[in-house]
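User: Teach me something about this protein's shape.
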Amino acid sequence: MIDFLKERDIAPMVTLNHFVLPEWVARQGGWENKSIREAFRHYAEVIAGNFPDIPYWITINEPNVLAAAGWAGEVGPRRKRNKRTPNCSSLSFSQHDCGS
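Assistant: First, the predicted structure itself:
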């Protein structure tokens, strides 16, 4: 896919996380678990290191939706309803920091 895009002068843009967490990650607390965030940092480094010609990277797709739907709403990646929703934005930004 990357080569296909480049052959047509389209700059690839890769998303590292698009809402879905493996079940084992979710059971360990998902993004609220600092060790998961560190594992994501390692994942981002490995992926970026293997694709050095990719000019654009998205660490977390739509972090605002992740926070709003996943923590505050009835649907979404975490389906976790609680009163800590405002703190989710800081979690989301820490995920982005992990990918930098």
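Now, about its shape. Residues 13-98 form one domain. The chain has one domain: 13-98. If you'd like, I can walk through any region in more detail.
User: That's plenty for now, thanks!
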